[in-house]
Amino acid sequence: MSPAAPTSPSPRPAPIPAPPPVGGVRAPRLLDWRVRFGVLALIWGFSFLFIKVGTEGFAPFQVTFGRLLFGTAVLAVALAVKRDRLPRGARVWGHLTVAALLLNALPFSLFAYAELTIPSTLAGICNATTPLWGMLLSLVALSEDRPTRVRAAGLGLGFMGVLTVLGAWQGFSGLDVTGTAMALLASFSYAVGWIYVRRTLRGTGASNLSLAGSQVGLATLQLAVVTPLFTSVPESVEILPLLAVIALGALGTGYAMLLQYGVVEEVGPTTASMVTYFIPVIATAAGVALLDEQLTWNTPVGAVVVLAGAALTQTRTSRRTPANPPAPREQTAAPATPPGDRPTAPARV
User: CA torsion 113→215→310→181, rounded to 10°?
Assistant: First the structure.
């Protein structure tokens, strides 16, 4: 659930990689990166279930505000522990405000509204279309990102998978069009947000954690303004929906982001971004097993096709090395590009 802060699929976390430890020596990890990778996939996969349960006791805007509030709290504690400073400059904060809308406030709210009428399994699969939207948009917005035949084939294959999931040959019968459109629009918003971040938040000098925490905090303020205008205070609070919202924010929007920072630092953004392909699988399994959601044959088959297409859109052609390469010359290092031309922060879900 990309993805939540500039990093980068999402989800997913800022366009600038965190600086290496002093002396190039990394502190030993308590858990192997594969374990943390698996925990990350589980948290983001279960986020769709948490949204579904949360909307049973709260309005969609309240679910979104709650997840952002608890996510901000976790990131604020991390910032305080690491003594990291917030970004500087009005222009940076302006771009972060837009990123907060596109990568957090808007897609989180759309998913919450979507799951009022569609199963969490379908929402999780719609989330997997973000790389497809990202490639389609990058052809227009990023002149340096030109498609190969393989990536173009992946784009076509991915959208064929979407049509399979939706049962296009049946005329989309039994499908809530509004809810499905909201889930797809949420994924589209992630893709727009990744491209916006890539074009505007490179070279800020702030750390990934600082950018991510600031962005999620700004999204919380946005929802703090919007939520009272469209909702009223619940007459009673049920414990299960409340716990779901807390888990959605503290784990899915806060702790998961910190987990991904560590995985990206240890194994690189390309490997870390592969968590995207496990999210719909876990979301589907959780929805069927714990929420008794019905699953027809076209849903898992279409999901596999969507993921295969998304994987193909993320392939990169290798550059040929000339037989007599020119002598290296001193140059200024360019900002790192996130995997799949998008941030690696938890923008998923």
Answer: 20
